[in-house]
Design goal:
Distance between the termini: 29 Å
Strand content: 15-25%
Strand order of the largest sheet: 3-4-8-5-7-6
Mean pLDDT: 82
Length: 409
């Protein structure tokens, strides 16, 4: 399509401003809605992936073989310090930390409650998506944190001293007194309802696990490259023999949920096809009917049918391109605003909880939509492809006109 043809097509479209404006509005609004929907879908996928991997699961985990099945205290990763140094130095690793998981009994008075002692690195868990991101206090020494729901059941308040009794990894008795430095509410129900959180070295000493841990959690710099990261971590000599898995293998049911959200845009493209086809086909068909005599005169003057086809197709493409520009400007602007301010679904509805609880996790209802270049190109391509298809019949009709009959119409 030459510049001259494009100018002619644009001029011809505005012979009927009302019809062209309606067609542009239909195409632009449809594409804008699709882009907004795509932005929300990407936000959902990011939100799910971040909630699943951020506070507890990580992008990659390393364990002693068999620990995930029976959670036995003596199935530990040995030489944790060296392993952590090796993992943190691997390419693509943003952070890595070790954890200890130990069942125990906790008591404030005479009644004991089953709890899970979680030994962790407070500095690593203070990252924005970590377990301690929203905790005002940090565990230190004999000062521990307790899940808020567990504290309510036990009747524990900040500053109380609780007794912990459990079994060490070597079979010895583990028991000591700890002061509750604070109560935490995280996005993980298990932590809120059962966990007592303490510093990793303290947990290792309490449960007779010198330089040992049950789990190493790794977060990568690229969340989409978890499989490659798992392979890189598994190849480290310091983790030879360990079971290393990415989050997609650790939580396949969650991966299916993320994948479903990521492909949901396919159904929305139907909206673009319908709106673009209706707008372009109606405009082109009415335009060719109204200009039958003009097209017949061009044919009588020697214009070839393919020239007429090119003119009609050019008008369809120009109309589709103008609709794309309008839709991208509108949809992209709305997504940009939403990404900056966030969309709080609880505030939008004015009712309901501020968080959802699903699969043992608490999910925030604030989303930050975003678009990728692929979303814009996909929507624009769908509009232009539909414009070409919608122009096929009007172009074919115009090319088959007989000059003598067309001039008499």
């Amino acid at each position: 399509m030459t510049l001259t043809t494009a100018r002619m097509a644009w001029r011809n479209l505005w012979r009927n401003p009302r019809r062209t404006s309606l067609a542009l509005a239909a195409i632009g609004l449809s594409l804008a809605l699709v882009l907004v929907y795509d932005g929300v879908l990407r936000a959902y996928a990011d939100w799910m992936r971040e909630t699943i991997t951020g506070p507890l699961l990580g992008h990659v985990q390393a364990h002693a073989p068999g620990w995930r099945k029976d959670r036995a205290m003596d199935r530990t990763l040995r030489g944790t310090g060296e392993a952590l140094r090796a993992v943190r130095g691997a390419p693509g690793v943003a952070s890595a930390s070790a954890r200890v998981y130990a069942p125990a009994l906790a008591a404030l008075g005479e009644e004991g409650f089953a709890v899970l002692v979680l030994g962790l690195d407070p500095a690593a868990e203070a990252r924005p998506t970590g377990l301690l991101a929203a905790a005002p206090e940090r565990p230190a020494g004999k000062r521990v944190l307790m899940g808020k729901a567990l504290a309510e059941v036990m009747g524990v308040s900040k500053g109380d001293v609780v007794a912990l009794v459990g079994q060490g990894a070597d079979g010895s008795l583990a028991n000591d007194l700890f002061t509750v430095a604070g109560l935490v509410s995280t996005s993980v129900d298990l932590v809120n309802r059962q966990a007592v959180l303490m510093e990793l070295p303290v947990a290792q000493e309490l449960f007779a696990m010198p330089d040992e841990a049950h789990e190493i959690v790794v977060h990568g710099s690229d969340p989409g490259a978890s499989r490659a990261l798992a392979a890189a971590v598994a190849s480290l000599p310091a983790l030879a023999g360990a079971e290393v898995m990415d989050w997609e293998r650790l939580a396949p049911e969650m991966l299916a949920l993320v994948k479903f959200v990521e492909i949901a845009w396919v159904f929305v493209l139907v909206l673009v096809f319908v709106a673009a086809a209706a707008g372009v086909a109606n405009t082109m068909l009415m335009s060719t009917f109204e200009r039958t005599r003009e097209l017949g005169m061009l044919l009588a003057l020697g214009a070839r049918p393919r020239r007429i086809v090119a003119l009609v197709v050019s008008e369809a493409l120009v109309l589709g391109l103008a609709g794309v520009l309008l839709g991208v400007a509108l949809g992209g602007g709305l997504v940009a605003i939403g990404h900056r301010t966030g969309w709080d679904y609880q505030a939008l509805t004015g009712q309901g909880p501020s968080e959802l609880s699903f699969a043992g996790l608490r999910w925030s209802l604030v989303l930050y939509p975003r678009l990728a270049l692929a979303d814009v190109l996909r929507g624009a391509g769908a509009v232009l492809a539909t414009a070409l298809l919608a122009a096929a019949w009007p172009a074919s009709r115009a090319a088959r006109l007989e000059p003598s009959r067309a001039l008499r119409s």
